[in-house]
Amino acid sequence: MTGYGRADILYNGKKIHAEIKSLNSKALDLSTRIAPIYREKEMELRQLIQTKLERGKVEFTLWIEKDATTQGSSINAQAVANYIRQMKSISTEVGIEFNAANIWETLVRMPEIMQTGVVEELCEEEWILVQQLVNDAINQLIAFRQQEGVALYEKFCKNLDTIEHLMKEIETYEGLRVEKIRQRLYDRLNELVGVDYDKNRLEQELIYYIEKLDINEEKQRLSNHLDYFRSTMKEGTGQGKKLGFIAQEMGREINTTGSKSNQAEMQNIVVMMKDELEQIKEQVLNVM
Fold first, then answer.
1. Where does 3-70+122-145 sit in CATH, by number?
2. What average pLDDT is seen over the chain?
3. What count of other Cβ atoms lies within 10 Å of the Cβ of residue 229?
4. Where are the domains of the chain?
5. How confident is the model at residue 253, as a pLDDT?
6. H or E element that contains 259
7. Contact by Cβ (8 Å): 83, 69
8. CA 19, 24, 30: angle at the middle one, nearest 5?
9. Interhelix angle 240-260/124-191, nearest 10 degrees
């Protein structure tokens, strides 16, 4: 869900900027900062963004940068003329000479002499351009996300292949483990001098014990989850939560395998599988 987009246009002596960026989020969390002239269109802008972006913590900014000829304050000529008339009238009434040489030093300190400019109104032509501007910024963000998606897909495939390879490595130690368990039990029994035991009953108990440590079901379910994860990635956008659920189920099977693995080599492999799965869980949060 991480992405960034920006677009700019020139219109009527001003440069209009649209910037949009997004981070991971379980839903669409949209915040906006919009120039005053476009505030009346905020709901339309929000709807435009919501129709194109499904999830993510999205920050959208739309602002105006004016050039030097239109930027800054201007002198209120009407206020200047009014103040001068009053000064002349008062000078005549009280008998004080009116000195026009230093009049500007006084005028610039008077209220309402400087004005920030006229109130702008949004015309239809400008609004059409702004909509296109916002669309361009959103499309850039989507393109950014798609590039990230390709990289994530390749990363996930590598993690899944590694887990699958490690799962097959476990099979190498699995058969040896059964023989080690059997031999260890017989060695312990042989140490008990003068104690007789039912060998048939021992075999039954041994079979029961070994069945409890059997991980064939876990391996099969994990293999199914790996295939399901791969097929889900190919279904298109909007599968992030589903991939997260599948990763959780993969974790259950790996954890169960670890709890049943009472051999150091198998447990080391399980740790490596967990490491690969953790990488998937971290990155799956960035999937739509």
1. 3.30.230
2. 84
3. 23
4. 3-70+122-145, 74-115, 146-284
5. 95
6. helix 240-260
7. no
8. 50
9. 10
